[in-house]
Design goal:
The protein is built from four helices and no strands. By secondary structure, it is mostly helical.
Length: 194
């Protein structure tokens, strides 16, 4: 309902419909528009206060200052874990490509060094799995932090939009008041003694 009234006020002011009215109707219309604008501004002030309170409460409940501080470290840690996993995967691929026997568990041959290669293959597989688990944990933490920061941005944008609307209506109200003052000065009888 509030947004409809605010939109109505902006629409009336933007279309300049008061030009087609006669002077008394125009004066009443301007007075009504001023009253509507004042009411809209009062409602917007309350909405802005409420939105700012919501923002403060969100920051407090979600410890946004801590989330922001950890976010950079989480990104760096995630990048490190991903880099290590990729490095071990490349080593594993190279080992499997150059020594296919390490992946063949049915092989009965026991060539010198096969056991060491198979052991390295197993170590790489375990390290890759451990890094994948670590990567998933860090990704989850990063997603949670990103979600919180995104919601914070949403709340900040809402406050910004409300303030912009408030400024537009306040400017229109000022313009209406100035227009009314000019009309009242124009409608005053001139002093013939001058």
């Amino acid at each position: 309902m509030k947004l409809i009234q605010i939109g109505f006020c902006l629409c009336l002011l933007a279309c300049g419909c008061s030009r087609v009215l006669d002077e008394s109707a125009e004066t009443r219309s301007a007075t009504n528009l001023i009253s509507i604008c004042k009411n809209d501004l009062a409602m917007l002030e309350e909405e802005i206060r409420s939105a700012e309170d919501d923002l403060i409460e969100y920051e407090r409940l979600n410890q946004i200052h801590v989330v922001k501080a950890r976010s950079k470290a989480e990104v760096e840690r995630l990048e490190f874990v991903v880099g290590e996993r990729e490095r071990f995967e490349q080593e594993l691929l190279l080992l499997e490509a150059t020594h296919p026997i390490v992946t063949n568990t049915n092989s009965l041959s026991s060539v010198f060094g096969d056991d060491a290669l198979r052991q390295r293959h197993g170590e790489l597989m375990r390290m890759i799995r451990a890094l994948e688990e670590s990567e998933n944990r860090w990704r989850s933490a990063y997603v949670l932090a990103s979600t919180r920061e995104s919601e914070l941005t949403h709340l900040q944008d809402r406050i910004r939009r409300l303030n912009e609307t408030y400024s537009q209506i306040a400017q229109r109200l000022h313009d209406l008041r100035m227009k009314n003052q000019l009309k009242s000065l124009q409608n005053q009888p001139s002093d013939p003694a001058r």
